[in-house]
Amino acid sequence: MTQIQSILDFANLKAKSQKFSVITCYDYTSALIAAASDIDVILVGDSLAMTMQGHKSTVFANISDIALHTKWVMRGLESVKSKIFVIGDVPFLAARSDLATNIDAAREIMQSGAHAIKIEGADGNLELITHLVQSGVPVCGHLGLTPQSVNVLGGYKVQGKNDAQFQKILDDAKKLEDAGCFAIVLECVPTELARQITNTINIPTIGIGAGNVTDAQVLVWQDLLGLNTEFKPKFVRKFANGADAFTNALNDFHNEVVNGTFPNESESFK
Ligand code: KIV
Question: What's the CA gap between 56 and 186, in Å, rounded?
Answer without folding.
Answer: 21
